[in-house]
Design brief:
The chain contains 16 helices and two strands. It is mainly alpha-helical. The protein folds into two domains: 111 residues, Orthogonal Bundle (Farnesyl Diphosphate Synthase); 187 residues, Farnesyl Diphosphate Synthase (Orthogonal Bundle). α4 runs parallel beside α7 and α4 runs antiparallel to α8. The longest helix has 26 residues. The two termini are 18 Å apart. The protein binds farnesyl diphosphate (FPP) and magnesium ion.
């Protein structure tokens, strides 16, 4: 998508407007991601000056949240490249996150009130979601409900808001697109959780099977835990550095109990539900395409 370059240029322009050399240097250090939120906005709202600005605002908020998240998670890679906290330090990552975040809000304040409210509200949810995520890594969480609430807030809320804001911008049915975005976001996070187990570190751009070591009981682990007769071995591996044998054991049991297969099925169900919501809309074909591409992705 050529328009994604326009979004990147817009982000650069916004950062240039901050009139701070170091911010531009730091912006250059950020590896570009998949820009899922921008793709979604542009597919729904079409390409215009307003939609490109909305994309830039959302991508800057997303980037800011990741700059903070890498400090919180003590991560040294992001999208296969060294993270800003690794290249510089935690302080720089937090401060640059704050700059991107507040510049995005400065621009958001100039936009339509309903759009501004939608996106701003999602950022509150996003921040609560991150706190829930951190709290959930303290002890083994076996509650599906807690996991769902957390991934809705941490990941789906901003994707939901992106879809809704794009619908408002283009005079489409905000509720329908909102629901589509929410389910797309939930499925996105579930696929992420599955890829952590099925893919190698090279493909992921970060160490594989890291979630469980970090204390994250994601959907495949939740199902596995529920289905294992003897849960003690799995519980004993929680938050431990895994040996080759231990990782293999987890993967085998994920297959034996169909925990992995059913996690994929859950993500697909969410995807189909989302598709059902927008099937009569004029852009349903691209929305179905986005959903399918997201579910079938490998990284
Ligand atoms: C990645 O999760 C984290 C998020 C999607 C949200 C993080 C949100 C905040 C830190 C709130 C602060 C918000 C702003 C705008 C300053 P992950 O660790 O599961 O995924 P990863 O593997 O990509 O790191
Ligand atoms: Mg993280």
């Amino acid at each position: 998508m050529e328009e994604l370059q326009d979004v990147k240029n817009q982000i650069k322009t916004f950062v240039q407007e901050c009139k701070d050399e170091k911010s531009l240097v730091l912006l250059d250090k950020l590896a570009t991601g998949k820009m899922l939120r921008s793709k979604l906005i542009l597919k729904i709202a079409g390409v215009s000056e307003e939609s490109i600005k909305l994309c830039a605002v959302v991508e800057m908020i997303h980037a800011a949240s990741l700059l903070h998240d890498d400090v919180i998670d003590e991560a040294d890679t992001r999208r296969g490249a060294p993270s800003v906290n690794a290249l510089y330090d935690n302080k720089t990552s937090i401060m640059f996150g704050d700059i991107l975040y507040s510049k995005a809000f400065t621009e958001l304040a100039l936009m339509d009130r309903e759009i501004a409210h939608t996106v701003a509200n999602a950022v509150t949810l996003l921040s609560i979601g991150e706190m829930l995520d951190v709290d959930l890594t303290e002890t083994f969480n076996s509650s599906y409900e807690k996991y769902n609430d957390m991934i809705y807030k941490k990941t789906a809320s901003l994707i939901e808001a992106s879809a809704k804001a794009a619908a408002i911008l283009s005079g489409k049915d905000a509720d329908k697109y909102s629901l589509y975005g929410k389910n797309l976001g939930l499925a996105f996070q579930m696929i992420d959780d599955i890829l952590d187990i099925t893919q190698d570190s090279e493909t992921l751009g970060k160490p594989a099977m890291l979630d469980f070591v970090e204390g994250k009981v994601t959907i495949p682990y939740l199902l596995l835990h529920e289905r294992l007769e003897d849960k003690t071995k799995l519980e004993s591996l929680y938050k431990k550095e895994l040996s080759q044998d231990e990782s293999s054991w987890i993967k085998e049991e994920m297959n034996n109990t169909k925990a992995l297969e059913d996690s994929i099925k859950l993500a697909k169900d969410l995807g189909n539900e989302a598709i059902e919501t927008v099937k009569d809309e004029s852009d349903s074909e691209t929305l179905i395409f986005i959903m399918k591409a997201m579910i079938e992705r490998e990284f």
